Amino acid sequence: MTSLFLLQLLNGVQLGVLLFLIAAGLTLVFGIMDFVNLAHGVIYMVGAYLVVMFAGMTGSYGLGLLLTLPATLVIGLVLEALIFRRLYDRPHLDQVLATFGLVMVVTELVKIIWGQSPLSILPPDALSGSVPLVGALRYPVFRLAVIAAGLAVAVGLWLVITRTRIGMRLRAGATNRAMVGALGVDIGRLFTVIFAFGAMLAGFAGAMVAPILSVDPGMGESVLILAFVVIVIGGIGSVKGAFAGALLVGIVDTLGRSFGPIILRAVMEPSAAAQTGRVLAPMLVYVLMAAILAARPQGLFGARP
Amino acid sequence: MTRWLMRRRVAAWAIFGGFALLPLVAALTGDPYLVVVATRILAFAMAALALDLILGYGGMVSFGHAAYLGIGAYAVAILSRAGITDLGAHLGVAVVAGAGFALVTGAISLRTRGIYFIMITLAFAQMAYFFFVSLSAYGGDDGVTLTARSTVLGQDWLADDRVLYYAALAMLAGLYLLCVAITGSRFGRVLTGARENPLRMQAVGFTPFRFQLTAFVISGAMTAIAGVILANQANFVSPSYMNWHRSGELVVMVVLGGIGNLLGAIAGATLALLLEEWLALFTEHWRLIFGTLLILVVLFSRDGLTGLFRGRGK
N or C: which end of chain A has fewer CB within 10 A? Predict the structure, then answer.
């Protein structure tokens, strides 16, 4: 039981760091430009498809990943220049509609290019197999690598945000965009950088889960909604909040799915417990969000509602 | 203002008259499929109308209204499976369930504003979506096929597509009149006032929250009725009714028709569904074209779609 708990905890952390990679870009764009981007999830999906394609072309997952990063960065730059740049000063409703249209377009393009059926890709040889953790418990090396990479990015991002000039501008921009603009910072260019960087992080997340999950045209959506939940819980514009929220959501979701039925079995018969657990588990994170919002409408680390 | 009311009355007669004559046109042209499509349009028009009530008049951009479509549809599926086939019962349960879900999620969502509100309604709709996806007793992801339509007074009148169509039309007309009454009432004016300036409404002595929540609940219940019609039309219910794409399409319909303009919601739903049907004739990838059009319209109409119409609700 303890080792199962540890296993699921690791899975939860792994989901958490992936959600963080997606939520980080989303929350900065929200916080600084007050821009709602429903299309962020499809970039994650495109990242996963690209790594499958590039790995197929080069014969190596690592090379595929190296090519996917600049590719998603470029996609981010292009989308920003073509579409998002024109929407900064528009009402939220316009941003929602345009990015919703973009979700439709990208999803259909992916279906046209790569087909409807799920694709899969193996983890690189160097990271396949599993390592012993505690006692008889073994854990796949690749999943550990995902956790490590995600945490490394989180630390890197934290250093950039707290220790560099651009990070200073990001924090200031998230607090008061108009003031930062008045002080002579080119907010438009700042946004281009954040947006492209956020797209790359989402693409990175997609590329890393490709060997774990199946790659299909619907994969961006569930993740986007979970990333929203993460941001709402953490507080819009706060990267610290996104990190805390992502880990919380990842762990609660994973543990709820695996231990919900077990706990329910204590109060009801096994088959009913299994069924109830299956139904309730996916709702757990939303209940968590509702509870946190009921107490703090602005989220855990949010400045204002 | 009276001239505007007059024009609205004429437009309403034109729209509802056109819908009333449509089965005749279908019979004359020998195209029964027209009635099927039109029933879908009526159902979505109800949902768009309901959404416009809170989006256009209350300024609440709910991005999760598809959840109520699904709740209404599942009310039909679950009751039918239990042997209760009466339309009245289906509608009653759908309305109560829709209102209940709206009351709970609305109360939480309305603690927030703007972009938070959009995302939270979206998240709650996903919660409902996943609930039904994992409900294996009712087919889970695959959904349920209904063996028969709802009955009225024990009779299977709705089995005829045209009867179902007129029943839907009558409901849409009823809901439209309800919305006209609501928006013209003191309640509606407080709602609009709360959209424009909640602080001032508070200062005058109203509690915006209560009015907004009431409107949200009414809207949810109305959308659940649309779900009942949709389930009957398709004889099929699945979680895909609650997919967030559907919520997005509902918002598109309202905005397309002009927000804060009840007839516009009906027109927008008609336009959007006809466009979908038409594009689908050419390619299975119609979403590619629909999405591109959506982006282009938002980008290149000067103030976006919303700016084309009066009463923008941000």
Answer: N
